[in-house]
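Section 5.1 Outputs to date
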Amino acid sequence: MTVVAQGSGTLEAIPRPKSVFQRNLNLVRELSITSFKLKYTGSALGYVWSLIKPLMLFGIMFVVFSVLLKAGAKSPDFPVQLLIAIVAWTFFTEATTTAMNAVAGNGDLIRKAYFPRWILVLASTTSALLTFAINTVLVVIITLLLGDLDLTWRSLFAPLLYLELIVLVLGLSMLLSSLFVFFRDLGHIWEIVSLLLFYGSAIVLPFSLIDSKFPKLSVIAGLNPIAQIITDVRYALVDPSLPTMAHYIGPLIAIPILLTVAIFVLGFTVFTKLTPKFAESL
């Protein structure tokens, strides 16, 4: 607080101006919370949908792949592995899909007010991250009660793996949101790419199944950062006997990690270069 003297001899406290960082942080927070609330406005179940949707997807995939097709039948804790993967995948798709429209859907705001445009993408991703945090806490509670989580020193790797996932999502979100302003067909293309990633990331089946059936293909699939993250999270949280991605692709394990960083740098670079053209294209 800054204290100044008034003409009457009284003193009045005037708050110090907030720093640019504080203003941006407050804006991100407000936009994130607003976006999170608007997703469930008018819904009878409201925020409960953030829990129901991944559980419903888990139920469908479990019945189809685990019960009918017997994928993961040799692993008694595969339902937990599947649930952890579904929650991570739900965050990935929700964050990238909503962030794609973060800039294009706020044309009026961009034309009327000046603020760093990346705040729109960060706020959209943070909104999806709130849902991801809620789902993760629920999964941890349920699996701990069932005794299916194996929390040891290995579990310390899980936050790092989730951080890698967040960096990947932010990079893709900035890239998609900036390109979507100029190429609206990108929305349809991303739907197809997301579907390919879903089945190529060992979400609904153990990665060992891909390795045993298609050993050459498994090396290529293992370079996918999502497959690497999910496979390693399963090792860190569920079963120490599960192979990590390094077991399948050896020294190439650095590639999915470097690819995550490269996607983030590419997304940030493209977003920064295209930002001056947003207002005239919306």
